[in-house]
């Protein structure tokens, strides 16, 4: 190599001396570009057999994809820059044509609804928003013969639990691709593919990461189904960055132990909340009073990690006062952190619904959603109850 300083500054220190050591924590590979001594090796890397350019593939993303695929029980996984990017990609992979139909939850995540509404409008696709726990939903799917059906493992924010096995049979009968957004329970709380889903989607920004420090999303499925999604990601460029992949993988290492504790805490908090005379209703799939309790028992780890409740007589102002009175829970617009995150549903997760869509989904101004954290569960319950009492005061 030349000893001229300009060249040395650019080229020196790019190769590590050979080592047989395997790091327990993988290194972060920020390189967007890799170069090869052999043009044959470069050629094969550009075919996806090695790392050439980070929009095609990158080591930290590969490691995360392997881990998520293993957790989902899938042959393959593709990671994206966010959960929404994952949901967009799985939609785009279906090859919708004008006149095709899409079925999605009427009571699901508002941003997914807004995205799919836009995509459907652009393509001339009919969007049918249905309640996935409606006993008639399978018959409607058979009637509509949609190209794709999206369900959420636990609906957001009303925590309804559809029977994915029943929906999967209806989808199979009409050849619809069955996509399940399993963000709320995480793959530890439910493996959607084993219940008949064709694709399992995660917003890894939530439980998989677990510490609210990286956005991300994944789609997992058979190798055959994932190949076009992988190819499309190279073109669309909505890849996950190496730092985010590394942080998410680090968080994922503790996912099973965290989820067990989150679910136990959620059950405890839900039980404590039922004692409050200030609440209209406590919504937790693990409670016998929940309309989908039997399905939750069969399909979820415990009753899941999320609790919701309606405050008696509260409107938006009381809801906001409640949020501001919290001392342990944090009023943050997300879920899946080690800390308890509390949200006023109508103004946050369902913000992008029209008032009519909110009413059809049954989301009222007094509805609060809680992602139950790893703090002491009695501290969480005491805090929520005290804040409800404070919110009710003028
Ligand atoms: N799916 C569900 C159920 C969600 O709650 C969210 C975000 O809140 C998403 C998807 C979108 O994920 P992201 O924020 O990573 O884009």
TrEMBL record:
Gene3D superfamilies the record matches: Aspartate Aminotransferase, domain 1, Type I PLP-dependent aspartate aminotransferase-like (Major domain)
Keywords of this entry: Pyridoxal phosphate
Cofactors (names): pyridoxal 5'-phosphate
Pfam families registered for this protein in UniProt: Cys_Met_Meta_PP
Residues recorded as bearing N6-(pyridoxal phosphate)lysine in the entry: 206
GO terms, biological process: cysteine biosynthetic process via cystathionine; transsulfuration
GO CC annotations, alphabetized: cytoplasm
InterPro entries: Cys/Met-Metab_PyrdxlP-dep_enz, PyrdxlP-dep_Trfase, PyrdxlP-dep_Trfase_major, PyrdxlP-dep_Trfase_small
GO terms, molecular function: cystathionine gamma-lyase activity; pyridoxal phosphate binding
PANTHER family, per the entry: CYSTATHIONINE GAMMA-LYASE-RELATED, TRANS-SULFURATION ENZYME FAMILY MEMBER
Protein family (similarity comment): Belongs to the trans-sulfuration enzymes family.
Protein name, per record: Cys/Met metabolism PLP-dependent enzyme
């Amino acid at each position: 190599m030349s000893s001229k300083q300009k060249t040395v500054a650019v080229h020196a220190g790019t190769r590590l001396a050979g080592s047989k050591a395997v790091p327990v924590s993988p290194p972060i590979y920020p390189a967007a570009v890799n170069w090869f001594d052999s043009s044959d090796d470069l050629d094969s890397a550009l075919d996806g057999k090695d790392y050439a350019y980070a929009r095609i593939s990158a080591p930290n993303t590969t490691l995360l994809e392997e881990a998520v695929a293993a957790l989902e029980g899938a042959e393959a996984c593709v990671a994206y820059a966010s959960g929404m990017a994952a949901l967009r990609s799985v939609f785009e992979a279906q090859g919708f044509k004008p006149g095709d139909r899409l079925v999605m939850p009427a009571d699901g995540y508002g941003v997914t609804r807004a995205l799919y509404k836009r995509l459907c409008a652009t393509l001339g696709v009919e969007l049918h928003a249905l309640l996935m726990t409606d006993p008639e939903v399978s018959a409607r799917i058979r009637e509509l013969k949609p190209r794709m059906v999206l369900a959420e493992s636990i609906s957001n924010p009303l925590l309804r639990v559809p029977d994915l096995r029943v929906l999967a049979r209806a989808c199979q009968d009409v050849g619809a691709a069955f996509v399940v957004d399993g963000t709320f329970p995480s793959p530890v709380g439910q493996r959607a593919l084993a219940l008949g889903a064709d694709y399992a989607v995660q917003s890894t920004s939530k439980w998989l990461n677990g510490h609210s420090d990286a956005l991300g999303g994944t789609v997992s499925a058979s190798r055959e189904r994932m190949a076009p999604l992988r190819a499309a990601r190279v073109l669309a460029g909505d890849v996950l960055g190496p730092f985010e992949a590394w942080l998410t993988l680090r968080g994922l290492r503790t996912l099973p132990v965290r989820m067990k504790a989150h679910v136990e805490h959620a059950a405890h908090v839900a039980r404590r909340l039922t004692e409050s005379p200030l609440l209209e209703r406590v919504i937790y799939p693990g409670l016998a009073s929940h309309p989908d309790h039997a399905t939750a028992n069969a399909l979820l780890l415990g009753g899941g990690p999320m609790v919701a409740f309606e405050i008696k007589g509260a409107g938006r102002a009381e809801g906001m006062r409640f949020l501001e009175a919290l001392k342990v829970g944090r009023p943050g617009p997300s879920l899946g952190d080690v800390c308890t995150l509390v949200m006023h549903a109508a103004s946050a997760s369902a913000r992008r619904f029209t008032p009519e869509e909110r009413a059809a989904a049954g989301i009222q101004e007094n509805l609060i959603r809680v992602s139950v954290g790893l703090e002491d569960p009695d501290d969480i319950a005491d805090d929520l109850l005290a804040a409800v009492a404070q919110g009710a005061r003028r």
